[in-house]
Amino acid sequence: MKPSLPPGPEWPEQEKAEQLARGAALKWASGIFYRPEQLARLGQYRSREVQRTSSLEARIKSVVQSYLEGVKTGVWQLAQAFEAAQGTREALGQAHGLLQGMAEAMQTLQPLREQVAQHKQLQVLSQLLPRLRAVPAAVAHTQTLIGAQRLLEAYVCLRELEQLQEETWAPLGGLELPVFEGLGPLAEALGQAVEAAAAVAGQLAREDPALLVAAVRVAEVDAGHTTSLELPPRDWRRRCLQALQEGLERTHFGTPLLLESGALAGWLEALRVALPAELAIAEALVAPCCPPHYKVVQLWTHTLHSGLRRCLQQLLEGPELGAADAFTLLRWTLHVYLGPEMMGSLELGPEADVSQLEPLLTPENIEQLEATFVTQVQVNVAQWLQKALDGEVAEWNREQEPGTDSSGFYHSPLPAIVLQILEENIRVTSLVSESLQRRVHSMALSELGTFLRSFSDALIRFSRDHIRGEAMAPHYVPYLLATFNYQSALSSSVSILQPDGAASGALAPVEAALDELQRRICRLVLEALLVELQPLFEALPSRRWLSSPEVLDDVCERTARFCQDFRRVRIPAVQLLLAEVECTVVLQYLRALMQGRLVCRGADERTQVAERLQHDAAQLRELFLGLRGSRLCPFGPARGCVPRAAPGRTRRPAGRPTALALCGSPRTLQPRASTYSCAVLLSSLRALCLTPGCPRNTATAPGCLNCVLGKGDEIKVGRLGGPCSVKRLKYPGSSPDMGCTSPIPASALYGLHSQVREFLPLYADYRPTYPRQGSELASPAPTLKAE
Fold first, then answer.
1. For the purposes of burial, counting CB atoms within 10 Å of the CB of 542, is it exposed (0-12), middle (13-18) or buried (19 or more)?
2. Segment 504-563, tens digit of pLDDT
3. Contact 776, 620 (CB under 8 A)
4. pLDDT at 158 > cutoff 80
5. Could you tell me the CA-to-CA distances from 385 to 267, 391, 417, 455 in Å, in that order?
6. What domain range includes position 101?
7. Same-domain check for residues 479 and 339
8. Which of 239, 270, 277, 585 is the most buried (most CB within 10 A)?
9. Which of 87, 106, 128 is where one domain is finished?
10. What does pTM read for this prediction?
């Protein structure tokens, strides 16, 4: 009966195989029984299955038999191996016993072995004894050779002594004899002698090249030498090259630099001469004394460059340099050092190229030096300009008038000094770099603006002290006029501060400051004129003014006398002064008339007033035309397009007509471009318009205004040479029988001006100035209405 293993979880393959077999059998049986004709073959199928089962059983038995035979063989081999291991163990035990016996025997032979070693050492020493006795003398001789700088001979003697030491070292088992204790210091002395010779290689190449060659050969020969002695390597080649570099740096950069006046410039100039000469010596004299792989010229170049760079870095880390030293250092490092005078010389070979090395100054160093230079130069420039200004201000209180030039104009060296100081600082920085030039240019413009503001403030203090009487200036107005020439000189020459490539608008702040200074000077001059004329204008209108021309004669006389010094003012400032004086006198005259009060008692008196106005107009016209036609200078276009004071400037846009500013001093100094004359003036005052007959004047001629204040008032408005329109004006509040004796308050005159505006569009910007509150004319002005 065939044994079979019960199916279970331990044999999942068997269970699966049985299921497959049963399935196949059921499939076959179902096929047989489905077809009855196949039942006859059932016996054949049974016999075939019996044969197959027998065959499988035979094969299984064969396999199991072969496995059993293998197991039997393995068991036999294990038994044999166990027997061999037992025999080996017994043999090892016997060997161990023998070894223990030999160790005991060796301990008894140790004294004999020591005796043998000593015998061998004594034998070697006995053979080398004559040579060993000569070692102290050889050491002394070698020391003498080193002192005499006979380096090659000293090295030969040293090598012989070291060879003898090697011969005794191995037989003696590494034992160092006391006789060789001096070889270490002797070798060190020779190495120091080689270093000392290498440190002054340049000098030796000129004076004693044989010594330099000997030192280099000793270093090279020792680099290829090997020894069996357990000594640290001497590395004389590296020490020789290091001594070369240290000697170069010590020669040129070893002395600490004292930051005294001119010390840095002298040191850099000495380097400019010494470094190329050193490289020439290295190429011509030192290089032939050294092996090619030393690359002497390149070594010299790199050593000098790195030493110089390190020295400059230490210099910058110390106290802050002065402006002169910072400028000198920047120019030397950026231009001289790399220029044809030094490292860029054509006489130096490609080995002396330093363009690929680190720059002497880093961008941070350059930024630091530029900032230092600009800061200190700014302080110096500010001090120089302040001293120049103080000297100029001190002259304003002198008893003498301002100095004049050969043409008779007021002259002072102040503008030239200011511009020269600034221009020299800008120009000299172009020798260094564009960035430094831009910095200094910006600084110069800033300091010039500060100087102009200080100059303006000084003028204000000068004027205030003079007006208050604290420091009366004997020649107050001439010195004010002299400052006009200073401003004109600065305006015409400030363009020299503009370097090539600078932004076109860089001078705009300076030009604005100059214009502001010009306006302030003109205002001070006009204030001085008003101080003289104000008492005279206070008499307008009055019976004295109506009956006699003396009041206006005094005005014209004082104005003409005041303008006498204008001939010493240059063009175009004199044109500006005449224009502003003319405007100021006319406006003050009109203000006095409009703010005054005069009672006309009849037609005769009104006619007399009109005649007086006409006479005053003619007199003022004659005054200013006389001033323009005098030797002062042509007045030019007063109301047309007028160029700026400084040549090459742009024109100003037009603004409110200057002649209409009836209150206070003029707010602008330039005659306005494309402006028009006031079209509301009395017919007898038409001559007061500035240069109406100038061929370049684009201004419209004044209108003709005829006022008859009373019943049936009328106004005639028109242009000279053109048709006039007549409008009747009615004074509100007046009775039909108001006669010529009725007073005409100034407020009515202001109301009249407000109505005239509808007839004259050119007068649209005019705003009359009313008296302050509390005066008799402060009541609201009545309005005149046209019929």
1. middle
2. 677 888 888 888 888 888 898 888 888 888 888 888 888 888 877 888 888 888 888 888
3. no
4. yes
5. 32, 10, 8, 10
6. 19-128
7. no
8. 585
9. 128
10. 0.61
